[in-house]
Design brief:
Layout: H1 4-14, E1 23-29, E2 33-41, H2 49-52, H3 56-67, E3 72-78, E4 82-90
Antiparallel strand pairs: 1-2, 2-4, 3-4
Amino acid sequence: MLIIPFIENAFKHGVSAHHNSWIEVKLSCSKEAIHLNVKNSNHKKLKSTEEESGIGLENVRQRLTMLYPGKHLFQLFENEESFEANLKIELN
């Protein structure tokens, strides 16, 4: 329940029937850590922020705090062309 919301959001918000769209997913696992980077095209929203607002990433943030306190890095980056989510979970 930590990784799936990133993939779902990439398809939900990063794919458009009217514009060129792309999604890039990188996942690496080792004994020490899990790294996930999901980057997708960013299209202008037609709906207002209130209508588009979801709770998926906030739920992930809360789960990380409960399950991996002090052992995770969760970053979001957004610009006009792309949206990127970066997650690292330390396993030791």
